[in-house]
Write a structure and sequence with these properties.
There is one protein chain. About 70% of the residues lie in helices and about 5% in strands. By secondary structure, the protein is mainly α. It has one domain. The strands form two sheets. It has a two-stranded antiparallel sheet. The chain has a two-stranded antiparallel sheet with strand order 2-3. α5 crosses α7, α5 crosses α8 and α6 crosses α7. The longest helix has about 40 residues. It is globular, with a radius of gyration of 19 Å. The model has no long low-confidence stretch (mean pLDDT about 90).
């Protein structure tokens, strides 16, 4: 027997409530995970353990985002693979030539490396573009402007990450100085990947995305004061 229109609305409403409760649960997990990370990084004896947990932090964040991503199609796969490969490839180029970011090298904290660059760096590029891209996905209609704003926000986040990353041995810069070329390089590479994000035909938006982005930014702001 087919459902009536009223029954269909009721089913939809119930599903929406379940989705909201599910999102609230994972937001709580995100908050606790970042809070525990801040506490762990602030205690010198525990810091080495939390440093090596960084790759798992990145994978957990990406996993939660993927769990709430709603539109799995070829365009999304193309974006995800492109973001990983372009971000990772730019880092390999940077480590071996100094272009486009400057002269730097990676430590061992971020895990398994290929061509002297941790594989998690590709995950990091994908994660940051997805988070910042979704922030502007519905607010800005112009693709070029949205890509510029997303890439600019990524540069701002990198500005927060860099001092912490050097102290925690994620990577180190020649002469311990962060060059201007690093931020210009981030802007250029981020802009390119953001354009792919905007042009790719998949449903943008994620109920977890903005909350995770806020926690990530707060996490590194606080770490700048405690490490």
């Amino acid at each position: 027997m087919p459902y009536s229109k009223t029954e269909n609305i009721s089913v939809f409403t119930n599903l929406q409530k379940i989705q909201e409760k599910r999102a609230s649960l994972f937001k709580f997990i995100i908050f606790i995970f970042h809070l525990v990370g801040i506490i762990g990084m602030s205690i010198p004896n525990l810091r080495p353990f939390f440093q090596i947990m960084t790759p798992f932090h990145l994978l957990l964040s990406l996993g939660i985002l993927v769990l709430f991503h709603s539109d799995w199609n070829k365009s999304f796969s193309f974006f995800a693979i492109s973001a990983f490969l372009i971000g990772y490839g730019s880092e390999v180029l940077g480590v071996h030539t100094g272009f486009p970011f400057g002269n730097y090298r990676y430590g061992t904290v971020l895990g398994i490396q290929l061509f002297e660059v941790p594989l998690m760096i590709g995950v990091n590029w994908l994660l940051l573009v997805y988070l910042t891209g979704n922030l502007f996905s519905k607010k800005i209609k112009n693709n070029w402007l949205a890509a510029a704003l997303g890439a600019g926000l990524m540069v701002g986040i990198d500005f927060l990450i860099e001092p912490v990353a050097m102290k925690l041995d994620f990577w180190s810069w020649e002469m311990n100085e962060i060059p201007l070329s690093n931020y210009i390089g981030w802007l250029a590479v981020g802009y390119l990947i953001h354009l792919i994000f905007r042009k790719a035909s998949f449903q943008k938006g994620n109920p977890i995305s903005s909350f995770l982005l806020i926690n990530l930014i707060a996490f590194f702001i606080i770490l700048n004061f405690i490490v």
